[in-house]
What does this fold into?
Amino acid sequence: MNTWTARLGVSICVAVSAVWTSGACAQQAYPSKTIRIIVPYAPGGSTTWTSRMVGEWLTQVWGEQVIIDNRPGAGTVIGTEAAVRSRPDGYTLVYIGSAIAANHT
It folds into this structure.
């Protein structure tokens, strides 16, 4: 093995180990606070019922509280806009049906 090949091998090993260890150090436990699920439909319908079932299951699995937030109106636009305007940290989810495929506003 010549010197150039040995240096290349060492460089690759250092780069791989740096990437591998930095990813492990940067990860945080998710979730670490309350999760909010926005349901853009009126309370009492089937989407509210199923979203509450999913929320209860996620509360048990994650060990953090999951809150269902109904935001009906304007053909799901009000609830969807509330989700879009929320902080992009992964703690606000949207439970939506097929109506989003029809809304092109």
User: Anything to note?
Assistant: Residues 8 and 91 are 43 Å apart (CA to CA).
